[in-house]
Amino acid sequence: MKFGREQVKYICIILFGANIASIILGILHYIIGLNIVIGTIFSILIVLAWFLNVAIIILDDYKVVKNSSIGKRINRLGYGFLGVQIIAIFFLVGGLFLLNANWFSPALQYSLIWIGFFSFFVYASLFSYLNIKALDNREVWKFE
Question: What is the value of pTM for the model shown?
C-alpha cells in the first residue's frame, strides 16, 4: 500500500487524538479511577497509540527529505522520540519496582510513574502535531 499525503495526514490526526486521549484518560484514571470497561478501552488506546507512534517514526524515516531543515528536524525528533520511549519505560519500571519497596516515599514512586507515562504521550502529541503542520510543505516530504 502506498502512503500518500492524505493517508499520512489521517494517521497523524488519529495519532494526535489518541495521544491526547491517553493523557486525559491517564489524568482521569489517577483522579477518579476508571471502571473495567473504560479501563479496557484505555488499555487498548495506549497500545494502539504506541504502535502508531512507532509506525509514524518509520514512515517519517522513509518519506521525509532529510536535506531540508524542517525534514532534518522531524527526523531528529523521531529518533529523539525513540530515546524518550526507552527512558519512559525505565521510569515506569523503576516506579513500579519502588512501589514494592517500603523504604521509598510514595511521592517518589508515583512521580516516576507519572513522568514515565506522561512524557511519552506529551512528546508523541508534539511530534504528531509537528508532522501535521509540516505535511503541507512540499520540500519536506517525498510523496510524488
Answer: 0.84
d(CA 137, CA 116): 33
Q: Where are the domains of the chain?
A: 5-134
Between CA 106 and CA 74 the distance in angstroms is: 37
Q: How far apart are CA 87 and CA 36, in angstroms?
A: 29
Q: What is the pLDDT of residues 84-112, one digit of tens each?
A: 999 999 998 988 888 887 777 788 888 88
pLDDT at site 87: 94
Q: Which long-range contacts (CB under 8 A, 24 or more apart) does 109-117 make?
A: 114/30, 115/88, 115/91, 116/87, 116/88, 116/89, 116/90, 116/91, 116/92, 117/26, 117/88, 117/92
